[in-house]
What we know:
The chain is about 65% helix and about 0% strand. It is mostly helical. The N and C termini lie far apart (about 40 Å).
Amino acid sequence: MAEIGKTAPDFEDLLPAMAEKLGGEGLMRELCNGFKLLMDKDKGIITVESLKRNAAMLGLQDLTDDELVSMVREGDLDGDGALNEMDFCVLMFRLSPGLMEESQLLIEEILEDELKTAGF
């Protein structure tokens, strides 16, 4: 599987700032809105074709077909060649180093609290 970082242009990771400003529910709502912008309206999924058609909205109009295919493959959790809404949201979180770091710290904190509560 191609690594998205090798094919996609550099981008500023804005998800942590969005999460801080919008909260968890607001961030998820915005991610869902982003999915709807990129999806094939008839199929309800993001295909390589729909991504290519809508990429200009994201400033990605110069990506090659191979790069678009790699982007879809990177997020395609069920192997159907497209991104459903869950695939897309998971991909956005995976591509956000800031959110991944925050999530890891939160999980570590929760585990420490659970261990203390359990007497360890």
